[in-house]
Amino acid sequence: MKQSIWKCLLIVTLVVGMCAIAGAQTPTDIAVTNDVTVHTITWTDAAGLTGETYNVYMSESPITDVT
Q1: What residues in the chain have per-residue pLDDT under 70?
Q2: Confidence (pLDDT) at 57
Q3: In the chain, N or C: fewer CB atoms in 10 Å?
Q4: Number of domain units in the chain
Q5: CB-based contacts of 46: which residues, under 8 Å, 6+ apart?
Q6: Which domain holds residue 29?
Q7: Residues in CB range of 19: below 8 A, 6 or more apart
């Protein structure tokens, strides 16, 4: 169970981190619902932005390179 929670936290960190790297405003209210095989991530889009996309990554181990 703890390993699944770690995966979700890693995903949330990357979503926020990738937005900051791109220079865009960071989405707020990021939440993760953890299930055995499905992890649902929700957030509130940054105001004033349209057409933005997000890449969400998951890994069994920490992702150290986001280039």
Answers
A1: 1-24, 67
A2: 76
A3: C
A4: 1
A5: 19, 24, 25, 26, 27, 28, 52
A6: 2-44
A7: 25, 26, 27, 46, 54
Q: Which residues, in sequence order, are CB contacts of 26 under 8 Å at separation 6+?
A: 16, 19, 20, 46
Helix or strand run (H / E) with residue 4 = helix 2-22
Q: Find the helix or strand (DSSP H, E) in which 11 lies.
A: helix 2-22
Domain-embedded: residue 51:
no
Q: Give the per-residue pLDDT at 42.
A: 86
Q: What is the pTM of this model?
A: 0.47
Would 7 be classed as within a structural domain? Answer: yes
pLDDT of residue 36: 80
- Is 31 part of a structural domain of the chain? yes
